[in-house]
Amino acid sequence: MAKIIIDTDIGDDIDDALAIAFAVMRPELEVEAITTVYGPTDLRLEIVSKLLHVLGRDDIPIAAGAGRSLGEVEAHIQKRFEGHVPNQHAFVKPEDDLRPATKDDAIDLIIETVDKFAGDIVLATIGAETNIALALQRDPEFARKVKAISIMGGAPFQNKIEWNIRCDPDAAAVVFRSEARKFVASWETSCRVVMAPPYIDKLRPVKTPIAQALVELIDLWMPKRGHKVGPVIYDICPILWAYDPGFFTVEPRRILVETKGELTRGYTVPLQGEPNCELCTDLKHQDILGLFMDTVSAQ
Question: Where are the domains of the chain?
Protein backbone atom coordinates (compact mmCIF):
# COMPACT_ATOMS: atom_id res chain seq x y z
CA MET A 1 0.00 0.00 0.00
CA ALA A 2 1.41 3.39 -1.04
CA LYS A 3 1.58 6.09 1.61
CA ILE A 4 0.91 9.72 0.67
CA ILE A 5 0.53 13.19 2.10
CA ILE A 6 -1.81 15.49 0.15
CA ASP A 7 -1.08 19.22 0.18
CA THR A 8 -4.07 21.03 -1.32
CA ASP A 9 -5.66 24.40 -2.13
CA ILE A 10 -9.12 22.82 -2.07
CA GLY A 11 -12.17 25.03 -2.49
CA ASP A 12 -11.70 27.10 -5.65
CA ASP A 13 -11.29 24.67 -8.53
CA ILE A 14 -13.16 21.40 -8.03
CA ASP A 15 -10.37 18.97 -8.89
CA ASP A 16 -8.90 19.00 -5.38
CA ALA A 17 -12.08 17.68 -3.75
CA LEU A 18 -12.54 15.03 -6.44
CA ALA A 19 -8.92 13.92 -6.19
CA ILE A 20 -8.97 13.76 -2.38
CA ALA A 21 -12.14 11.64 -2.41
CA PHE A 22 -10.52 9.34 -4.97
CA ALA A 23 -7.34 9.04 -2.89
CA VAL A 24 -9.16 8.21 0.34
CA MET A 25 -11.40 5.65 -1.39
CA ARG A 26 -8.64 3.75 -3.21
CA PRO A 27 -7.52 0.60 -1.34
CA GLU A 28 -4.02 0.92 -2.81
CA LEU A 29 -3.43 4.20 -0.98
CA GLU A 30 -3.02 5.17 2.65
CA VAL A 31 -3.47 8.92 3.10
CA GLU A 32 -1.29 9.74 6.11
CA ALA A 33 -2.07 13.47 6.29
CA ILE A 34 -3.80 16.29 4.42
CA THR A 35 -2.61 19.89 4.64
CA THR A 36 -3.90 23.11 3.09
CA VAL A 37 -2.03 25.89 1.32
CA TYR A 38 -2.60 29.30 -0.28
CA GLY A 39 -4.85 32.11 0.92
CA PRO A 40 -7.58 31.16 3.43
CA THR A 41 -6.02 27.89 4.56
CA ASP A 42 -8.30 27.74 7.61
CA LEU A 43 -11.41 27.79 5.42
CA ARG A 44 -9.84 25.25 3.08
CA LEU A 45 -9.19 23.01 6.08
CA GLU A 46 -12.87 23.18 7.05
CA ILE A 47 -13.77 21.79 3.61
CA VAL A 48 -11.20 19.00 4.07
CA SER A 49 -12.57 18.21 7.53
CA LYS A 50 -16.16 18.00 6.27
CA LEU A 51 -15.16 15.87 3.25
CA LEU A 52 -13.18 13.43 5.40
CA HIS A 53 -16.13 13.13 7.79
CA VAL A 54 -18.41 12.21 4.89
CA LEU A 55 -15.81 9.64 3.83
CA GLY A 56 -15.73 8.20 7.34
CA ARG A 57 -12.05 9.10 7.78
CA ASP A 58 -11.90 11.45 10.74
CA ASP A 59 -8.70 9.64 11.70
CA ILE A 60 -6.56 11.24 8.96
CA PRO A 61 -4.38 14.02 10.44
CA ILE A 62 -5.07 17.50 9.04
CA ALA A 63 -3.54 20.96 9.40
CA ALA A 64 -3.70 24.41 7.81
CA GLY A 65 -0.50 25.67 6.25
CA ALA A 66 0.99 28.79 4.71
CA GLY A 67 -1.51 31.31 3.39
CA ARG A 68 1.02 33.71 1.92
CA SER A 69 3.66 33.09 -0.70
CA LEU A 70 7.39 33.19 -0.04
CA GLY A 71 7.88 36.22 -2.29
CA GLU A 72 6.03 38.79 -4.37
CA VAL A 73 3.02 37.71 -6.39
CA GLU A 74 0.80 39.47 -8.91
CA ALA A 75 -1.77 41.96 -7.65
CA HIS A 76 -4.83 39.88 -8.56
CA ILE A 77 -3.37 36.91 -6.72
CA GLN A 78 -2.45 39.05 -3.73
CA LYS A 79 -6.12 40.00 -3.35
CA ARG A 80 -6.91 36.35 -2.76
CA PHE A 81 -4.96 36.52 0.47
CA GLU A 82 -7.31 39.22 1.73
CA GLY A 83 -10.80 38.07 2.66
CA HIS A 84 -11.16 35.45 -0.07
CA VAL A 85 -13.81 32.78 0.55
CA PRO A 86 -13.47 29.63 -1.61
CA ASN A 87 -16.57 28.97 -3.71
CA GLN A 88 -17.01 25.49 -2.24
CA HIS A 89 -16.90 26.64 1.37
CA ALA A 90 -20.73 26.68 1.35
CA PHE A 91 -20.39 22.88 1.53
CA VAL A 92 -19.58 23.47 5.21
CA LYS A 93 -22.81 24.14 7.13
CA PRO A 94 -23.15 26.09 10.39
CA GLU A 95 -24.44 22.97 12.14
CA ASP A 96 -21.45 20.83 11.12
CA ASP A 97 -19.36 19.73 14.08
CA LEU A 98 -15.96 20.05 12.46
CA ARG A 99 -12.97 18.51 14.16
CA PRO A 100 -10.04 20.84 14.81
CA ALA A 101 -6.66 20.65 13.12
CA THR A 102 -4.41 17.86 14.31
CA LYS A 103 -1.51 20.32 14.60
CA ASP A 104 -1.30 24.10 14.55
CA ASP A 105 1.31 24.13 11.79
CA ALA A 106 1.01 22.12 8.56
CA ILE A 107 4.75 22.24 7.96
CA ASP A 108 5.34 20.51 11.30
CA LEU A 109 2.75 17.88 10.41
CA ILE A 110 4.39 17.28 7.02
CA ILE A 111 7.88 16.98 8.50
CA GLU A 112 6.76 14.70 11.34
CA THR A 113 4.83 12.44 8.95
CA VAL A 114 7.78 12.21 6.57
CA ASP A 115 10.04 11.37 9.52
CA LYS A 116 7.62 8.65 10.61
CA PHE A 117 7.60 7.03 7.16
CA ALA A 118 11.03 8.07 5.94
CA GLY A 119 11.79 6.70 2.48
CA ASP A 120 8.27 5.37 2.06
CA ILE A 121 5.97 8.35 1.54
CA VAL A 122 5.01 10.43 -1.49
CA LEU A 123 4.05 14.09 -1.20
CA ALA A 124 1.21 14.81 -3.61
CA THR A 125 1.23 18.58 -4.09
CA ILE A 126 -1.97 19.82 -5.73
CA GLY A 127 -1.67 23.53 -4.95
CA ALA A 128 1.05 26.10 -4.49
CA GLU A 129 4.38 24.64 -3.34
CA THR A 130 4.73 26.93 -0.29
CA ASN A 131 4.33 24.33 2.46
CA ILE A 132 6.76 21.94 0.78
CA ALA A 133 9.35 24.66 0.21
CA LEU A 134 9.12 25.64 3.87
CA ALA A 135 9.55 22.01 4.91
CA LEU A 136 12.63 21.75 2.69
CA GLN A 137 14.06 24.90 4.25
CA ARG A 138 13.23 23.88 7.81
CA ASP A 139 14.67 20.36 7.58
CA PRO A 140 17.91 20.02 5.56
CA GLU A 141 17.37 16.23 5.33
CA PHE A 142 13.76 16.47 4.15
CA ALA A 143 14.42 15.86 0.44
CA ARG A 144 16.30 12.64 1.24
CA LYS A 145 13.50 11.32 3.45
CA VAL A 146 10.63 11.52 0.97
CA LYS A 147 10.09 8.75 -1.53
CA ALA A 148 9.05 11.38 -4.10
CA ILE A 149 7.31 14.70 -4.54
CA SER A 150 4.46 14.25 -7.02
CA ILE A 151 3.54 17.65 -8.46
CA MET A 152 0.56 18.99 -10.34
CA GLY A 153 2.01 22.13 -11.83
CA GLY A 154 3.78 23.87 -14.64
CA ALA A 155 3.42 24.16 -18.39
CA PRO A 156 6.98 23.68 -19.69
CA PHE A 157 6.06 23.34 -23.36
CA GLN A 158 3.71 26.31 -23.62
CA ASN A 159 4.16 30.04 -23.32
CA LYS A 160 2.04 29.89 -20.19
CA ILE A 161 2.32 30.34 -16.43
CA GLU A 162 0.38 27.53 -14.78
CA TRP A 163 -1.78 28.51 -11.78
CA ASN A 164 -0.18 26.46 -8.98
CA ILE A 165 3.28 27.75 -9.91
CA ARG A 166 2.00 31.28 -10.40
CA CYS A 167 0.67 31.39 -6.83
CA ASP A 168 4.21 31.05 -5.44
CA PRO A 169 7.03 30.93 -8.02
CA ASP A 170 9.70 31.22 -5.34
CA ALA A 171 8.42 28.18 -3.48
CA ALA A 172 8.13 26.19 -6.70
CA ALA A 173 11.73 27.10 -7.54
CA VAL A 174 12.88 25.69 -4.19
CA VAL A 175 11.00 22.43 -4.78
CA PHE A 176 12.18 21.96 -8.37
CA ARG A 177 15.79 22.60 -7.33
CA SER A 178 15.59 20.10 -4.47
CA GLU A 179 17.29 16.73 -4.75
CA ALA A 180 14.05 14.85 -4.05
CA ARG A 181 12.72 12.56 -6.74
CA LYS A 182 9.94 14.41 -8.57
CA PHE A 183 7.08 13.43 -10.84
CA VAL A 184 5.51 16.39 -12.68
CA ALA A 185 2.00 16.25 -14.12
CA SER A 186 2.02 19.47 -16.11
CA TRP A 187 -1.00 21.39 -17.35
CA GLU A 188 -0.43 20.18 -20.92
CA THR A 189 -1.16 16.55 -20.07
CA SER A 190 -3.34 16.61 -16.93
CA CYS A 191 -5.88 18.92 -18.62
CA ARG A 192 -7.07 15.94 -20.69
CA VAL A 193 -8.80 14.25 -17.71
CA VAL A 194 -12.20 15.94 -18.16
CA MET A 195 -15.36 15.01 -16.30
CA ALA A 196 -17.82 16.17 -18.96
CA PRO A 197 -21.55 16.68 -18.13
CA PRO A 198 -22.56 13.06 -18.97
CA TYR A 199 -20.20 11.84 -16.25
CA ILE A 200 -21.71 14.25 -13.73
CA ASP A 201 -25.16 13.00 -14.74
CA LYS A 202 -24.02 9.44 -14.03
CA LEU A 203 -22.90 10.47 -10.55
CA ARG A 204 -26.10 12.33 -9.58
CA PRO A 205 -28.31 9.23 -9.06
CA VAL A 206 -25.73 7.50 -6.86
CA LYS A 207 -27.13 7.78 -3.34
CA THR A 208 -24.00 7.21 -1.30
CA PRO A 209 -23.06 10.09 1.02
CA ILE A 210 -19.78 10.71 -0.80
CA ALA A 211 -21.34 10.74 -4.28
CA GLN A 212 -23.95 13.23 -3.12
CA ALA A 213 -21.28 15.35 -1.41
CA LEU A 214 -19.22 15.47 -4.62
CA VAL A 215 -22.29 16.44 -6.65
CA GLU A 216 -22.95 19.27 -4.19
CA LEU A 217 -19.35 20.46 -4.46
CA ILE A 218 -19.49 20.31 -8.26
CA ASP A 219 -22.71 22.34 -8.28
CA LEU A 220 -21.13 24.97 -6.03
CA TRP A 221 -18.19 25.20 -8.42
CA MET A 222 -20.10 25.21 -11.72
CA PRO A 223 -20.95 28.97 -11.73
CA LYS A 224 -17.19 29.63 -11.38
CA ARG A 225 -16.05 27.11 -13.99
CA GLY A 226 -15.20 29.66 -16.68
CA HIS A 227 -14.70 28.03 -20.08
CA LYS A 228 -14.57 24.46 -18.73
CA VAL A 229 -17.41 22.15 -19.79
CA GLY A 230 -17.04 20.28 -16.52
CA PRO A 231 -14.43 19.40 -13.89
CA VAL A 232 -10.92 18.97 -15.24
CA ILE A 233 -9.41 16.54 -12.75
CA TYR A 234 -5.78 17.68 -13.01
CA ASP A 235 -5.11 16.77 -9.40
CA ILE A 236 -5.85 13.08 -9.72
CA CYS A 237 -2.60 12.64 -11.67
CA PRO A 238 0.00 13.09 -8.91
CA ILE A 239 -2.15 10.97 -6.58
CA LEU A 240 -2.64 8.12 -9.05
CA TRP A 241 1.06 8.12 -9.98
CA ALA A 242 1.91 7.46 -6.33
CA TYR A 243 0.63 3.88 -6.64
CA ASP A 244 0.36 3.14 -10.37
CA PRO A 245 2.83 4.94 -12.67
CA GLY A 246 1.62 2.72 -15.51
CA PHE A 247 -1.08 5.25 -16.38
CA PHE A 248 1.61 7.76 -17.39
CA THR A 249 4.34 8.14 -20.00
CA VAL A 250 7.29 10.09 -18.59
CA GLU A 251 10.59 11.51 -19.78
CA PRO A 252 13.53 12.47 -17.57
CA ARG A 253 13.83 16.24 -18.01
CA ARG A 254 15.47 19.22 -16.39
CA ILE A 255 12.79 21.75 -15.45
CA LEU A 256 13.42 24.89 -13.42
CA VAL A 257 11.16 27.78 -12.41
CA GLU A 258 11.91 31.32 -13.60
CA THR A 259 11.64 33.77 -10.70
CA LYS A 260 13.24 36.99 -12.00
CA GLY A 261 11.87 37.81 -15.44
CA GLU A 262 9.42 40.72 -15.55
CA LEU A 263 7.20 38.90 -18.06
CA THR A 264 8.27 35.31 -17.41
CA ARG A 265 8.22 34.97 -13.61
CA GLY A 266 6.58 31.62 -12.86
CA TYR A 267 7.43 29.94 -16.16
CA THR A 268 8.54 26.32 -15.87
CA VAL A 269 11.47 26.20 -18.25
CA PRO A 270 12.85 23.02 -19.87
CA LEU A 271 16.65 23.16 -19.95
CA GLN A 272 19.56 21.09 -21.15
CA GLY A 273 21.47 19.25 -18.47
CA GLU A 274 21.01 16.62 -15.83
CA PRO A 275 17.33 15.72 -15.40
CA ASN A 276 15.72 16.73 -12.11
CA CYS A 277 12.23 15.27 -12.62
CA GLU A 278 10.11 12.70 -14.40
CA LEU A 279 7.90 14.81 -16.65
CA CYS A 280 4.57 13.37 -17.76
CA THR A 281 4.34 13.61 -21.54
CA ASP A 282 1.25 11.45 -22.07
CA LEU A 283 -1.40 9.67 -20.01
CA LYS A 284 -4.25 7.21 -20.41
CA HIS A 285 -6.90 9.83 -19.78
CA GLN A 286 -9.93 7.68 -20.57
CA ASP A 287 -8.66 4.89 -18.32
CA ILE A 288 -7.99 7.40 -15.54
CA LEU A 289 -11.46 8.89 -15.86
CA GLY A 290 -13.02 5.42 -15.88
CA LEU A 291 -11.14 4.45 -12.73
CA PHE A 292 -12.20 7.68 -11.06
CA MET A 293 -15.87 7.16 -11.90
CA ASP A 294 -15.79 3.51 -10.78
CA THR A 295 -14.25 4.60 -7.48
CA VAL A 296 -16.53 7.48 -6.51
CA SER A 297 -19.68 5.81 -7.88
CA ALA A 298 -19.21 2.59 -5.92
CA GLN A 299 -22.31 1.63 -3.95
Answer: 2-296
